[in-house]
């Protein structure tokens, strides 16, 4: 009997009757139901997280942004979460949220603390602290929800951090622009300062030159004041001499007055003594000539005094302008110059009055001299005409009376001249004293102008250094200006965005599973294939006892026992593939390759389970369940297999399910097929061959019956 005939016989046996057929159909549906319902239930759970209730507590009191505008980041976070649809968020209070998480009304609670906005802006005040999001979970509600909520909180944190970082970077770059603008203003100001310092330096140089000129002029003014003091001394001396001469003239005028009186008396007597008239007339002519000469000397002295007084007054008037110019040059205000000139004018007033009196007395002395000459000439003529004088003696007597009266007036005028000369001497003394004080003041002024010139030279040197330093400052500011970033608003916004979110992720997927269910499909399809192969031997006999009893070849008996399971397994995975791809929409990238590989996986798994049942019986059937559990935890179906404990590494490397899962991922997601053909297929083929050999060994061993064969110790 061939293996095919043995397989057909076994299939007929398990389909003989309605219930066996239904049982076979149920067994065929197990992989499809297992993989189909599980993948259907977990196809895309993340798209339905909006049905998961969660509490959202916003206690944020808000704050102000960098521009002083009110801001509440907590409310923005709440709005974004409510609009995102990530969970079914409910805005509640803190107590209600805590109670809801405890009572499983909410799966978790997210709390935005009261100082959230203030903390985010605290770095601007150099008191940095972190804004806090409080996540309240209860693993009694659901463990995975906590993991998902942690991810959501991390995304919220990253989003807020990006926003705050972008705002901070924008303020930082805006500060650079402000620094650039202010530095530019400072550079422009430094340029103006440099220009102004240059002009100040030029002005200081001119000031120094002017101060030198002022000092030179002040020395000249000192020389003039010294000359004025010398002239005032001479004037005082001349005024004293004039006063003495005026006193002498007054005494002579008194004598003239007395003589005129005597002349008048003598003329009276002359009438009686005309005999002596010629001699007396000669004496009179000689005396008159002497008087005339004396008066001429007095008049000449008066003229000299008058000329000297007029010259002194003119010099004093001319000195007003020089003194005023000197005072202005020394920095006196116009008001101070006016006051000084007024004081000088008041000091000169007695001198001017004395000069006026001197000029008046000089004129009278000239008149006196002229009158005296006339008298002398008359006396001379009298002497000449003495013989004829007799007749005119009466007239002479009258003229003598007039002379006496004129002499009286002359005496009064000369007395006034003496008084004026005395006052002139007093004023000249005061002028000399004032001129001495003026010399002292001019010496002080010379010292001040020297100090002014020295300070002006130092100012010239300092302004030169200031101009040089201002130029260096200007050049340095303009050089530094080019090193200060001054981005445009668009560049600043892009830079701030890049600083706030410096790293962008770009997914480069060589292959991709569209949904969570698609990602788990390779694992659960491989697991369902094992389960399908396992349950088949609840109905199928691993080995044909008739064929063994007939002495059939062990290999033929082993293949005859496996072929029905292999065929039914192919039917199982084909149905499962149709449901997964057509009904659930998980379409493989390599449809025919995926289906062919599932056939290979099914045949291998059924061969393994067949070998265990054929070799060990009920114990082998139990070991099939144990191997399923071991492969379930070591195949790396959900997490990468490297995350399993290290003692399970050998299990992953030896068991076939891990290779089946990896190969199905490449076939379904469009990955490289080198590992499928070069690794997975040979490993599964090796397991298949080993399993057939073990089943053949079992068929060989069962050719000899033992007591355990007739009555097994354990029947499942």
From TrEMBL:
CC terms in the record's Gene Ontology section: membrane
UniProt KW keywords: Membrane, Transmembrane, Transmembrane helix
Residue span(s) of domain ABC-2 type transporter transmembrane: 502-696
Topology in membrane: Multi-pass membrane protein
Keyword 4Fe-4S appears in the UniProt entry: no
Gene Ontology molecular function: ABC-type transporter activity
Subcellular location(s) of the protein: Membrane
InterPro entries per the UniProt record, alphabetical: ABC2_TM (IPR013525), Phage_infect_YhgE_C (IPR017501), Phage_infect_YhgE_N (IPR017500), T7SS_ABC-Transporter (IPR051328), xxxLxxG_rpt (IPR023908)
Entry's transmembrane regions: 21-41, 520-540, 561-584, 596-615, 622-641, 676-699
Name of the protein described by the UniProt record: Chromosome partition protein Smc
Protein's organism: Pseudonocardia autotrophica
Protein's gene: smc_4
């Amino acid at each position: 009997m061939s293996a095919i005939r043995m397989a057909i016989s076994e299939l007929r046996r398990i389909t003989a009757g309605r219930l066996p057929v239904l049982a076979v159909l149920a067994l065929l549906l197990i992989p499809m139901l297992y993989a189909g319902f599980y993948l259907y239930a977990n196809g895309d759970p993340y798209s339905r997280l909006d049905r998961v209730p969660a509490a959202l507590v916003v206690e944020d009191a808000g704050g102000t942004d960098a521009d002083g505008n009110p801001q509440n980041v907590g409310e923005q976070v709440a709005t974004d979460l409510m609009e995102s649809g990530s969970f079914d968020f409910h805005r509640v209070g803190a107590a209600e949220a805590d109670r809801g998480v405890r009572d499983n009304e909410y799966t978790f609670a997210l709390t935005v603390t009261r100082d959230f906005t203030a903390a985010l802006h605290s770095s601007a005040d150099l008191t940095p602290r972190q804004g806090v999001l409080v996540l309240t979970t209860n693993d009694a509600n659901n463990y995975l929800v906590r993991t998902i909520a942690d991810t959501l909180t991390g995304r919220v944190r990253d989003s807020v951090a990006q926003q705050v970082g972008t705002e901070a970077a924008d303020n930082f770059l805006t500060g650079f622009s402000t620094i650039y603008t202010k530095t530019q203003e400072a550079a422009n100001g430094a340029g103006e300062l440099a220009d102004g310092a240059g002009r100040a330096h030029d002005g200081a140089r001119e000031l120094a030159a002017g101060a030198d000129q002022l000092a030179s002029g002040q020395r000249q003014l000192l020389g003039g004041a010294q000359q004025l003091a010398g002239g005032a001394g001479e004037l005082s001396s001349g005024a004293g001499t004039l006063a003495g001469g005026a006193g002498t003239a007054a005494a002579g005028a008194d004598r003239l007055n007395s003589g005129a009186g005597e002349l008048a008396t003598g003329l009276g007597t002359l009438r009686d003594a005309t005999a002596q008239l010629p001699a007396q007339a000669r004496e009179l002519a000689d005396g008159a000539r002497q008087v005339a000469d004396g008066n001429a000397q007095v008049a000449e002295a008066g003229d000299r005094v008058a000329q000297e007084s007029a010259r002194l007054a003119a010099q004093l008037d001319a000195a007003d302008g020089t003194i005023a110019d000197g005072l202005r040059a020394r920095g006196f205000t116009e008001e101070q110059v006016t006051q000084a000139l007024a004081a000088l004018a008041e000091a000169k007033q007695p001198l001017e009055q004395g000069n006026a009196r001197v000029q008046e007395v000089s004129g009278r002395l000239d008149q006196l001299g002229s009158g005296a000459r006339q008298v002398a000439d008359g006396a001379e003529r009298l002497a000449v005409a003495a013989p004829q004088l007799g007749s005119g003696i009466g007239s002479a007597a009258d003229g003598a009376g007039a002379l006496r009266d004129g002499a009286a007036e002359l005496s009064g005028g000369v007395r006034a001249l003496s008084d004026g000369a005395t006052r002139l001497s007093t004023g000249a003394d005061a002028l000399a004293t004032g001129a001495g004080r003026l010399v002292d003041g001019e010496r002080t002024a010379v010292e001040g102008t020297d100090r002014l010139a020295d300070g002006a030279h130092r100012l010239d040197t300092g302004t030169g250094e200031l101009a040089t330093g201002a130029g260096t400052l200007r050049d340095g500011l303009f050089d530094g200006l080019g090193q200060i970033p001054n981005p445009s608003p668009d560049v600043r916004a892009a830079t701030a965005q890049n600083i706030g979110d410096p790293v962008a992720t770009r997914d480069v997927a060589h292959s991709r599973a569209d949904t969570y269910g698609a990602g788990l499909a390779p694992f659960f399809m491989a697991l369902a294939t094992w389960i399908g192969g396992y349950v088949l031997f609840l109905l199928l006999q691993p080995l044909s006892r008739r064929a063994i009893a007939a002495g059939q070849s062990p290999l033929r008996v082993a293949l005859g026992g496996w072929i029905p399971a292999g065929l039914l397994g192919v039917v199982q995975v084909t149905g499962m593939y149709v449901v997964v791809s057509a009904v659930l929409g998980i379409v493989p990238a390599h449809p025919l390759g995926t289906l062919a590989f599932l056939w290979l996986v099914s045949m291998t798994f059924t061969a393994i389970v067949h070998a265990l049942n054929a070799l060990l019986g009920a114990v082998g059937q139990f070991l099939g369940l144990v191997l399923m559990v071991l492969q379930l935890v070591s195949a790396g179906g959900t997490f990468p297999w490297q995350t399993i404990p290290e003692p399970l590494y050998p299990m992953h490397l030896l068991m076939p399910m891990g290779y089946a899962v990896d190969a199905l991922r490449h076939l379904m997601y469009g990955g490289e097929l080198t590992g499928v053909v070069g690794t997975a297929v040979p490993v599964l083929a090796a397991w298949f061959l080993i399993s057939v050999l073990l089943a053949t060994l079992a068929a060989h061993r069962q050719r000899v019956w033992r007591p355990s064969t007739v009555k097994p110790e354990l029947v499942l």
